[in-house]
Amino acid sequence: MKALGIILQAVSILLFATSSPAQTKVPDSTGKTCEQFLKDFYAWYLPIAQAEIERHVQPLDLTVRANPAVLSREIISGIEAVDAEAKKSGDAGLDFDPVLNSQDPGGPGDPPYIVRDVKVEGKICRADVYYQSTDGKTEKIVIPELQAQNNRWIFTNFHYPNFPKDPNSNLVTIIKNYLRDSKMPQN
After folding, report:
1. How many whole angstroms separate alpha carbon 69 and alpha carbon 29?
2. Hey, what's the torsion of the CAs at 11, 144, 80, 123, to 10 degrees?
3. Secondary structure of residue 90 in the 3-state scheme
4. Which has the minimum average pLDDT: 7-16, 61-70, 118-127, 154-163?
5. Domain extents for the chain?
6. What is the reported pLDDT for 128?
């Protein structure tokens, strides 16, 4: 399991370094409305996530390493800490894609995720992101939260309205709970 993770990271870094910039470069958020950035971001992210199995590219890895960053420092350091702890313990770590709130985003050619109901209050933006099935049904799957910083949008959290254990769940809390629980002595 550890070897597979290392191989996937190496392939991801190699592909990131050798792929065309249009395929791997995270959309720039500078000067865009929150809604336009979210639509551009999910249009970029989803096809990479859908092709992940075949191409061994982790879209979250590309997003964490984006320059300029589109994830908050808290999220980046939290994901890195979870990854390090998961490698050390052999756990699955975050066993879902936190940007899509999914373990299976579908395949290439499936309908896109839909960004709706964007609300900006001060420097904080939230939107509802819907999964669209091939039969046209939609389900609200994730609510990204962003903050305006230096004329750019930065993801500060992802809320999960349908999370099985807690409908008020969010990525920052899941990371904190994972790291707290991993430090507890095992019986």
Report:
1. 10
2. 120
3. coil
4. 7-16
5. 2-182
6. 97
Alpha helix ranges (H) inside 31-151: 34-50, 52-55, 59-64, 73-89
pLDDT at 10 (0 to 100): 33
Task: Please choose, from the candidates 150, 154, 145, the residue with its C-alpha nearest in 3D space to the C-alpha of residue 119.
Answer: 145
Cite the DSSP H helix spans in the chain. Answer: 2-18, 21-24, 34-50, 52-55, 59-64, 73-89, 171-183
pLDDT at 132 over 90: no
Helix or strand run (H / E) with residue 149: strand 138-149
Which tokens in the block code for residue 37? 């950035």
pLDDT over 80 (residue 89)? yes
At 113, is the secondary structure helix, strand, or coil?
A: coil
Strand order in the sheet with 124-132: 114-121, 124-132, 138-149, 152-160, 169-170
pLDDT tens digit sequence for 133-153: 888 899 999 999 999 998 999
Please determine, looking at this structure, whether the domain spanning 2-182 carries the CATH number 3.40.50.1820: no
CA distances to 54, 63, 147, 168, 180 from 67, rounded to whole Å, are 25, 9, 17, 31, 29
